[in-house]
Amino acid sequence: MTLHLLKLSVGPESLADLARWQNARLKEKKKKREPLLLQHVTRMTPKRGDQLLAGGSIYWVIKGHIVARQKLVALKPVQKYHKPHCALVYEPKLILVARRRHRPFQGWRYLLPKDAPPDITDPKSARNLPEALKSELAELGLL
Hints:
Blueprint: E1 4-8, H1 15-31, E2 38-42, H2 49-52, E3 57-62, E4 65-80, E5 83-90, E6 95-101, E7 108-111, H3 131-139
Parallel strand pairs: 1-3
Antiparallel strand pairs: 1-7, 2-5, 3-4, 4-5, 4-6
């Protein structure tokens, strides 16, 4: 069974901020001729890694809303501060999802496919709306 991860994106104020940060990181990787994949390093290694890599994604929570996802491609063991960590490696393509409120949490959480918000198939329809309006429309179930 496929499984997803839910991750709080700390720092970005909006999806546009997250996209800018990721694009800057990809430009650095391109200069260094490194693979154009992104990663997030976390302290804990998911025990259900096989299920995550069987088509799973990392869903981003920004300002209390699940807003986008990126396909997971690998889980790599890494060292940080001389302690074992896990790098969640994911594709650079951000896929917009139907916004859904989510309470704050620490670390990451597993997300079952039945609980994952659906992808937005026509992102042009909401692209130019201000973040506050997107949030309000999502609360009303209109976006």
